[in-house]
Write a structure and sequence with these properties.
3 helices, alpha+beta, single chain, about 35% helix
């Protein structure tokens, strides 16, 4: 009986270790996430990383750091550009940009 009890206790400890290790690995595999207002959330998991096109798992930079901007020339302003930024969407409405125009 004592031998049976020791064997059962040993098996339970091994199972507990396996469970703890599995939970840790599941937690470690879960990727990080970053969210930005207006453009949504991104992770360092598939499909944003770990692919042939994106082999390195990195989170994207904030739009403020990237500072994407467009220099708009239209018929109304052929010689001077109007700056449109991804950070400040009001710059689109203040510009001469016309989505209905066929000149894209």
């Amino acid at each position: 009986r004592i031998r049976s009890f020791r064997h059962q206790h040993s098996v339970e400890r091994k199972m507990l270790r396996i469970l703890a290790t599995s939970l840790f690995l599941l937690w470690a595999v879960k990727g990080n996430e970053v969210c930005f207002e207006r453009i949504g959330c991104f992770t360092d998991d598939f499909p944003w990383a770990g692919t042939t096109e994106r082999p390195i798992a990195k989170l994207p930079w904030a739009p403020e750091k990237i500072n994407t901007r467009f220099l708009l020339y239209t018929r109304e302003n052929p010689d001077n550009f109007q700056e449109i930024t991804a950070i400040n969407p009001v710059t689109i409405s203040y510009s001469n940009f016309n989505a209905r125009s066929e000149e894209h």
